[in-house]
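User: My instructor asked us to take a sequence, write out its structure as tokens, and then describe one feature of it. I'm not sure where to start. Here is the sequence I was given:
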Amino acid sequence: MLEKLRSYVLPFAILMGLILHKWCALLSFIVPYFIFIILLLNFVAVDIRKLRFSRLQWWILAFQVVVSILAYYVVNIFVHNQLLAQGILIGILCPVASSVVVIACLLGANRETVTAYTVIGNLAIAIVAPLYFSFIGVHQDMSILSSFWLILKRVGPTIGLPFFVALLLQICLPSVNDFLARYKDWTFYIWAVLLLLTLGQTIDFIFLHGDGNELNILWLGIASIVVCAIQFGVGKWIGSRYDDTMAGGQMLGQKNTAMGIWMANTYLTPLASVFLAFYSVWQNLFNSWQIWRHDHQKTISEPSSAE
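Assistant: Let's start with the prediction itself. The structure tokens for your sequence are:
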């Protein structure tokens, strides 16, 4: 029964986020705890000591690092819109979502590939982003080292801590690790609650910054859906070259928008973060459609298999 309802979780979260956006903003302090639980349950489900960084992951990371800065300069030079350029920059550079393993594995991606990129991809962007922000944005006077430490303090507790806890359990307490691994499927429903909270915060953010900026917000919204489609499409294409289409699409397309919004507010023109606020809606609508399509195809194939 729950499997039949899961494709409706995302649109329901968007609807409830719209209705309850003020309450969701007030509850933002519990989001890191949900992320920690999701990552821990995913990390204990794989042998962390066997995780490797593959060519697929290198290509995804290269796209984020190279295309983000190229897109920034192209838009800035030819469109003459600094705000839009910053929005697109952060929309592509933004690290992969902490909960990407939940959706990617549900859609059939390789768990080890996505899990490894969750850690390495976030840490890599934490290194690259300060370099870019040293000559782009409102804090160009901040040292690269200070900027790096500021970002690392945001990434470390939510990504690094569950990784090392899981590693410690696998080495010292394998029975506890195996016990927790039984509950890895619960991550989808924990993620559903997390999604409601983050989308509510996103919608509240758009409401707060909407007055007087309607035209800029419109362009940021249009650009965000284009960039979202490109990233999922390119990611799937790269993934298909390495026999893991879903992993490629999710690793490049599914973003840690909360982290991206924070980086935009801290280093760039704050209104640029609206790009990722819209992106959060588009990526979750697309994920909802992917889940529905995956479950629908599975339902169709089951009678055939029985025959």
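For the description part of your assignment, you could build on this observation: The two ends are 23 Å apart (CA to CA). Try explaining in your own words what that tells you about the chain.
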